[in-house]
User: Fold this.
Amino acid sequence: MAGARPTVLITGAAAGMGRAHCRCLIAEGWDVVAVDRDQAGLAALAEEVGEDRLATVVGDVRQPALATAAVEVALERFGRLDGLVNNAGYGLQRSLLDSSAEDFLDQLAVHVEAALAFSLAAEPYLRRARGAIVNVSSEWALAGPCTWPQPPAAAYCAGKAGVLGLTRALARQLAPEVRVNAIAPGGARTETTLSHYDGETLARKIAGVPAQRWAEPAEYSLFVRYLLSPAARLVTGQVLSPNGGEVIAGG
Amino acid sequence: MSAAGVLLVGGSAERARRLAAGLSGERLWLRPAYAQGEAEGLASLPFRPAEGLRLDGLPSPLDLVAVLCEQTAAATRPQGLTARLGLMREVLLEAFLPVREVLRRQRAWLRLAWIISPTPLNGCGSPERAAAEAAVLGLMRGVTREFATRASTVALVVDGARDPEATDRDLAATLQLLRDPGSSFYTGQVLNLTGGAWIAGA
Assistant:
């Protein structure tokens, strides 16, 4: 029995931007299936937002079987699936010269292969619901590691850029029933990100952003919410990059 | 024109032979498993990304490394999720490992070029191929920032299905231009050689 409210599945949901997306979409009237390998983080999220509108799935997105299991949870708990946010990922700042094949393959697995597996698992239900997929990339996919001091990060850039190619191909393959878009965020004031830098380093990074600040995670959630909504019904295969002007190119 | 060496990576034997014919200097081809045979008149080394890479007999110094990513992806049509993921991994490793090895060995300036299809830009093609070749674009941008004083980079977009011989002739001529140190300020860019079939914003 399909529920009255739309349902979205969000990976990497226990912290940072993923957690912000969960809060935002629940507030907007969605039911949410939150996927993460951080069991404690998911429990904390459930305690914060309540369990009426939230189902949690613990697991590593690098395991393709997790995608099928998470979609089944959405159907069993809420009876429908209208949206998918492929958000799980992590940064890797390492010189190309020191990067191994495993470094590259893991970036591909977390960012691209997981997004593909979840998209394919969700496809029949998203088609039925005329739903949408939002993939989370990075401004570094568009411009390389542009943030001062421009740390080496070729493997991470490859993984996040792969997300954009996947987005464009899936947008064509799943049209017209399902829209597929990506966001390529700039700096985010997540706990993880802020823990990497001392105050002086962070100030120098932010000084390079025309907007003179990094965004709160919830600001990126607004773009995810928009891309999932009927208001974006003409938007597919596109990349939105809210980055405070840090990357200005193309046209 | 420069007479330094060229490292060609990937592609079919026919494609490698045609490209090499348009490039001056000593040339070595890293021959992938799918190439099925040698390219006549072109020195080659077998290259299987999963087995790592040894670059014995590398021309030195190099002024061009050209990786034929789009040929790699076009060469196989995998079925099933596992096989599709395997293709993505192979394309990315083929694009990454030779470049890493050359940058480890050589300090002198060189041009790094990855040849891709329009698929990652226009989405026309399989998701795994689009993702893999888009990842190559990300690799190119990351390498550009990290090695800006040692290497200039470019991604060349070609549609190999349209008159392959003419495409490769034009591609070789473009690579000849780009391996000239005078072109070194052109870096981190995507250059379309698609006859206007793909005209859109960056």
Remarks:
- The beta strands of chain A are 7-11, 31-36, 54-58, 83-86, 132-136, 179-183, 239-240.
